[in-house]
Amino acid sequence: MKDMHNTHIYFSDIAIRFGHQQVLTDTELEIVSGRCALLCGKNGSGKTTLLRIIAGLEVPYSGFVNTGIGKYHWNQYRQQLRQTTVYLHQQPYMFDGDVVSNLNFSLSNKLTRKKRIDRINSAIEWAGLESIAKNPAKTLSGGERQRVAIARAWLRNPSILLLDEPITNMDHDSRSRTIQLLTNLKQQGVALVVSSHDPVHFGALTDTLLQLSEGRVHRFITSDNVTPIHYRKHLNTNAKQT
Amino acid sequence: MDESTSITLDAIYLLFSGDAELWTIIAVSFQVSSTAILISIPPALAIAFILANADFPGRRLIISVFNTLLAVPAVVIGLTFYLLLSRQGPMGDWKLLFTQSAMVMGQTALCFPILVAMGHAAFQAVDKRAWETARTLGASPTLAFYTVMKEARFGLLAALFAAYGRIIAEVGASMMLGGNILHYTRNIPTAIALETSKGEFSQGIALGIVLIILAFALNTSLQYFQGKGHLRN
Question: Which residue of A lies nearest to B231 if distances are taken between CA atoms?
Fold first, then answer.
């Protein structure tokens, strides 16, 4: 899939509360084609909520989207977000049926049967799913599910891909394969936003390292190649300051 | 041959000899109950889905109301619609009392709460990620709803069969609203009640056999479909 994207979106003033708990306050986030933002933070810091807001699945009481062409209220831009963004749950949901039927879900009904089969085959090849293509999707392991979910998202050709803890509880091999797929997507121009407890594994993939705490995003490193050393250095510096 | 064996054999003969009166009764039953269930399914499933997925004031009260309606006897539903449809009632001008339409109304009121209550339970059992995944993969709300229905299909089928089983076998509403008119509103349960009161057990047993075969077919179908499902994670 060669489609190149040209996304540069700036989210600002995002705020949401659940009951009396203020989860996000005036949060800002920049999303750029072909770049990966890694979102770190403690449990309950609001990482998942922020991703869900960007995906249009959660409704903030405040939030603006600046596309470079205009600045919109989040509500005005929600439909556009839904069309251009794919969100992957921490444990991706698999529909009843085999892997092929799950991949088929992403394709438009307007496509001919032959085109569908071609697209599905290319997704299977792209994500290395040949050996599990006919397996019932609900019986797959965590790593296999994640790869199927990424392939399903790839078929949608999204501008923005949001991943919530995509490599949690994976072995080394599954983790490498998942990160390789994400690297491919990034090279194709997809903007990635990844939340993770364990940012060290995303070193080579990450362009911007963000930390979410007290309901706000703190951008502390932007470079073309953030390495785990950068992250560790930052944590050490923070620890010394406090 | 004792009397009960003789009656049962008569009943089987009636059933398989193509007795016109008997098969008209069976046809009325299926026609009325199938119409009632088809009318009920779309709104009942929509309500069940909304109750399972949306959060709004009064939601719990609505769920309680539908659960309570499950326990309302058919004869009370029959009485209510009888009062509404009788000449002095608010819907008396429609002249529907003692028609198949009146029976459909009564049976719709009977199966609606079953479809909502059991449909709500079926939709609640589906992981919320199913809806979100469908939507994030570009599905319209209608397609996402259809997708969630597919995920909940075993529970929804159980709801459908339970609802159909209830209305095809109920006497109270059909008797009061249909009037048990031969070739028009006489269905299986009202015919069984009438024939039994006359001491004509053969036709009653023949019709009873039809109901038992139907119940068996519905349950076997449900088992078949459920057996094809994979374990959920």
Answer: A138
Q: Which residue of B136, B147, B151 is the best one to mutate when testing the A interface, meaning the one whose CB has the most A CBs within 10 A?
A: B136
> Best mutation site among B127, B131, B137 for testing chain A: the one with the most A CBs within 10 Å?
B137
% of chain B surpassing 90 pLDDT: 76
Min Cα–Cα distance to chain B from A13, Å: 23
d(CA A51, CA B201): 69
Whether pLDDT at A93 is above 80:
yes
Q: Give the residue among A73, A90, A102, A103 at the shortest CA–CA distance from A162.
A: A90
**Which tokens is A79 given?**
């439909």
- pLDDT tier at A131 (50, 70, 90 boundaries)? very high
CA angle A160, A163, A167 (to 5 degrees): 145
Q: What is the pTM of this model?
A: 0.84
Strands A208-213, A216-222: pairing is antiparallel
Cβ count within 10 A of residue B228: 9
CATH fold of A8-91+160-241 reads: Rossmann fold (3.40.50)
Q: What is the pLDDT of residue A214?
A: 84
Q: Please give, rounded to a whole number of angstroms, the shortest distance from the CA of A46 to a CA of chain B.
A: 18
The whole domain housing B52 covers 3-226
Give how far Cα A211 sits from Cα of A45, A199, A208, A221, B82, Å. Answer: 9, 10, 10, 10, 68
The amino acid occupying position A129 is: L
Q: Which of B28, B27, B29 is nearest to B170 (CA)?
A: B29
| Residue B231 domain-assigned (yes or no) | no
Q: Is residue B232 part of a domain?
A: no
Residue B207, domain CATH = 1.10.3720.10
Distance CA A104, CA A54 (A): 25
State how many domains chain B has. Answer: 1
Asked whether residue B66 is domain-assigned, the answer is: yes
What are the pLDDT digits (tens) for A222-239?
555 555 555 555 555 554
Q: Beta-strand (E) ranges in chain A?
A: 8-18, 21-32, 36-40, 62-66, 71-73, 85-88, 160-164, 191-195, 208-213, 216-222
Split at pLDDT 50, 70, 90, the class of A69 is: confident
Nearest residue of chain A to residue B233 (CA atoms): A138
ipTM: 0.88
pLDDT for the residue B231? 44
Determine the 3-state secondary structure of B186 from DSSP: coil
Q: Is residue B233 part of a domain?
A: no
